[in-house]
Specification:
The structure holds 2 protein chains of 2 kinds. Chain A is mainly alpha-helical. Chain A has 1 helix and 1 strand, in the order αβ. Classes of the chains: A mainly alpha, B alpha+beta.
């Protein structure tokens, strides 16, 4: 019957370690966020090039090109008339 | 551009010359008389024509020069097509009911049809070149309608091309001579009754012709008839072709090709066209389907349907 009790102690120990680690992690995150917020805007140089803009369709100002006019036939072939 | 329109050889005709001079105008103005002379020689409806007199007597010496040439052209076509396009179809044509000019032909006839029978062979016609004599066996009479229009269109276009690029349209058999800077745009009529043209073809030199059973047709004893006789049966051709349009090196060859297509049907006819690099064809079948040979698209105007 000693084995289950030892397992329970180990589980509680793991939960405690996780809680401490989580708390420390949270402080790290908060500290890091505070640091970013602390950089003055005028000193902040963009670290990335501006995002390329997607090609936008040009506004069609000219009318679409008209199809080449068909030539008028000079004669018609048909069965004998 | 100079032009003239006229009625001749039982059809509407039009000629154009890409020129402006007085000589070209005069040549165009002589065209009606030139055509009338041919019609007087070759008409099967005029009992005084050289052809009608030969058919009536079965023999003629010192035959009219136009008839001699037209018969020579018809017989060369018969040799080239192994008798499929032959001038020996007159009795069969009349037997089907086509015994007067088409404008006077009753469209519904009650007479009985003759039994199916092959027409006489063109090889039975005897010719002597020195005396320009022609002899026909008793059962053989001639109709030159299978080749005379295409041949005449070629001759007229050649004559007019001395003055500039020329185009002659004899009832749908069209000849172009004289290499114009821009090709002639020619419409192919849609025989299915659609308002627009079936295609717009660009032709620089040569000929285009259409034959079909969409116009010159009538009924006899309740059976539909038309003007293209199948020499193997002596009856109008019964194939899946409604109209056939052929482009060739001359209007004569185009006319012969179109008739051959009508007589052989779309499958065999188009296979034959594909074997000849100088021919292209567009076929409308009786079920309305449109087929074209590989080379036909080379002649089409852009956007032509």
């Amino acid at each position: 019957m000693a084995e289950p009790r030892r397992a329970g102690v180990a589980a509680r120990l793991m939960v405690s370690i996780a809680a401490v680690a989580g708390t420390l992690g949270g402080w790290v995150v908060l500290a890091a966020r505070d640091e970013v917020v602390a950089i003055p805007a005028e000193q902040a140089a963009p670290s990335l090039a501006p995002l390329p803009t997607l090609a936008t369709p040009r506004v069609q100002t000219a009318p679409p090109p008209s199809p080449r006019p068909r030539r008028a036939p000079v004669a018609t072939t048909r069965s004998s008339r | 551009m100079l032009s003239i329109e006229l009625q001749t050889m039982g059809c509407h005709a039009r000629a154009l010359v890409d020129a402006d001079g007085a000589c070209a105008r005069a040549a165009l103005d002589r065209l009606p008389a030139w055509c009338a002379k041919r019609e007087r020689a070759l008409s099967r409806f005029d009992p005084e024509s050289a052809l009608a007199r030969l058919n009536a007597r079965g023999r003629a010496t010192d035959v009219d020069e136009i008839l001699w040439e037209a018969l020579d052209v018809a017989l060369r076509a018969a040799v080239a097509t192994e008798g499929l396009i032959t001038p020996t179809v007159l009795a069969a044509l009349e037997g089907s009911g086509y015994d007067r000019s088409f404008e006077h032909l009753p469209r519904e006839q009650s007479g009985r049809l003759a039994p199916e029978r092959a027409v006489p062979s063109f090889r039975e016609i005897e010719r002597d070149e020195r005396s320009r004599t022609v002899r026909l066996p008793p059962s053989l009479r001639l109709d030159l309608g299978g080749t005379a229009k295409g041949w005449s269109a070629d001759a007229a276009a050649s004559m007019l091309s001395r003055f500039g690029p020329a185009l002659v349209d004899l009832g749908g058999d069209i000849a172009a001579h004289g290499a114009p800077l821009e090709p002639w745009p020619i419409a192919v009529e849609d025989p299915r009754g659609a308002s627009g043209a079936l295609a717009l073809v660009l032709l620089r030199e040569g000929g285009i012709a259409t034959t079909g059973r969409d116009h010159r047709r009538w009924t006899r004893d309740g059976v539909e008839q038309h003007h293209v006789i199948d020499p193997r049966t002596g009856r109008p051709a019964r194939t899946d072709v409604w109209t056939a349009t052929v482009i060739a090196g001359s209007a004569l060859d185009a006319d012969i090709g179109a008739k051959r297509l009508l007589l052989e049907g779309s499958q065999g006819g188009l296979a034959w066209i594909e074997e000849h690099r100088d021919l292209a064809a567009l076929v409308v079948r009786a079920d309305g389907l449109v087929l074209q040979s590989t080379r036909f698209s080379e002649y089409l105007e852009e956007d032509s349907t």
